[in-house]
Amino acid sequence: MRLGLSSEAAPDASLGDLIRFATRRGLATLELREGDAHGIAPGSSATDAAAAAESVRAAGLTIAGYRTDRLEDADWLARLSGSLAAAVLLAGPVPLTARVARGERIKAARGEVAIVLRGESAVWDGLVCHAAGLPLAWEADPRLGPVGTMAASLLDRFGGALGHIRLIGGGPEAARQDGAGIGDLMSQLALHGYTGTLVLAPSAPRFGVAWQHWLGRRGGWGCGGSDTASSLVPMEGRPVTGGQE
Question: How many domains does the chain have?
Answer without folding.
Answer: 1
